[in-house]
Amino acid sequence: MDQRQLEVLIEEDIKKKEEYKQYKYPQIENTNILFDDLRKQVQKQQISFRKWLTIGLYSLHLDVLLSERQQDKNQPCILINSSNQICQLNNQAFQLGIRVGMNTSEIENIIQNILILKMQNQQSSQEVFNSILRYLQQIDKDVEVDFNNKNIYYFLIDVTNYMTEKGFENPADIASSIANYIHNEFKVESFCGIGANTLLSFLAAQMSFHSILQNSCISRIQEIKDFVSHLHLDIKMMTNLSESLLASLEKMRIMSINDINNNLIQIYQTFPQNVTNSLLQIYYGVSRNYHNVQVEIDQLKVSRMLKLGEYSIQQLQYLVDQIVEQITLDMKHYKRIAKIAKLQLTKIDHTNIVVKREILRIDSDYFDLLKSECFQMLKSLQIQNLLLQKITIQVFEMIPIDSIINSNITFAQRFYKCVQQQQQSKKSSLQPAQIKEQSSTNYGMSNTNYIQNQDQNRFSFNQNNLFQQREENENKSLIKEQKIDLQQNKTFFQQNQQKQFLQQKTNNNQNNQQQKSKQLQQTQLFKQSNQSQISHFLKNQKN
């Protein structure tokens, strides 16, 4: 980067800071008061937000292939990839106990009764997908499309204008009309799900997968027992989830999908730990591991508003506050994250050290969930990733590597390479000195077997030395700091003593001078009185 580019970046940064300074919000310790104040500001300005729907398409490729093979439509069918792993299946195969993610070797006893298709030519399914996309673009020209590893397409569409044109009053009605159109026009009957957000669209897709819903709209579900008993579980560890979920929901008197939506946080706090983890993997692992239903849809709104440029600062700030508020509802630790997010979003004066300290105060048990929520929100608002990357690398060095590898967070995977590079650079800088020390200690030893064992275990030995050397360096730095503190205390004490002595000396000198001046004044007065008396006596004698 040359000097000119650097100057341009600095000028742009200064302009952005000046723009953010125009929108200052009050710093209040209680975040709820801040949210209420922002809501009042938005209500005064009468800002209207759009109505959004999410459409989920489940097992698109397999469904299109089966529609071309009508003779095999009612036969158990699976779709495998190049490594013989099952990536899609129909309901008949699901009833046989087959799950997504299994290998064909695990179902050898029933494989002769199953139709196996390979993930090769996707031209036909791509044509259907493009046709559906063109139809949705008639409703919203800027429809958002997302695809993840669960083979589900998500369409985020704005139905505000469409509802007013068609006279719909409820988003559920327009969801039903879109679902019926897709079924009738494209003959897609086993995978389409529509809801107010990604979670509900995924649940609707599951219900459609089991032929419980005719129009694939989640708002049509009235009884939660059907939802629980027919839930599509793709993960082996969740075999007992339905029973635990149903028992917990019956205790809480939750009988409809609206009750789930309204009491999701209470459900999250009530469930046992294993059920909670399963819920997180089912509900939120499908898309981006969010813990709240509305967080994901609001994040998509924010990123989309930024992309289209159709937003005001008040709208954007209000949406961000909605996200932060929902984060604060679940755990007390989220309040600290909300403050950090506020500092970043409003560009209040702060330093990297302050942000780093705030993040490091968070308990490690909640850290994975917290950092994904906070950083995904900041990244969705296109805030500079440089500071986030620095903080993340520093924090990841303090967390066990296993917890990072086992987490399903894309943010951790993204920056884990940076951590590895840092660790490798440290190893390369420390290994020559360690090898030299090791060779000097082994020099002169006559036991060749011991030397061979040392050579074989050199890598693990070097790793242990790295950790030991890091601990020793930390201890040395602490000792140095303590010595410096002691020395500073000594010098400070000596300086104070010298100051006190000099102050006392000056005070004594001042007192002595004052006493001398008083004595002089008294002697002068005495002399004057004596002279007056003598003169008076002489006058009397003359007379």
UniProtKB/TrEMBL annotation:
Biological process per Gene Ontology, one example term: DNA repair
Stored Gene3D superfamilies: 3.30.70.270, 3.40.1170.60
InterPro entries tied to this protein: DNA/RNA_pol_sf, Rev_trsase/Diguanyl_cyclase, UmuC
Domain of life: Eukaryota
Positions of the UniProt region annotated as Disordered: 429-448
Positions with biased composition (Polar residues): 436-448
Every UmuC domain range: 70-205
Protein name: ImpB/MucB/SamB family protein
Organism for this UniProt entry: Tetrahymena thermophila (strain SB210)
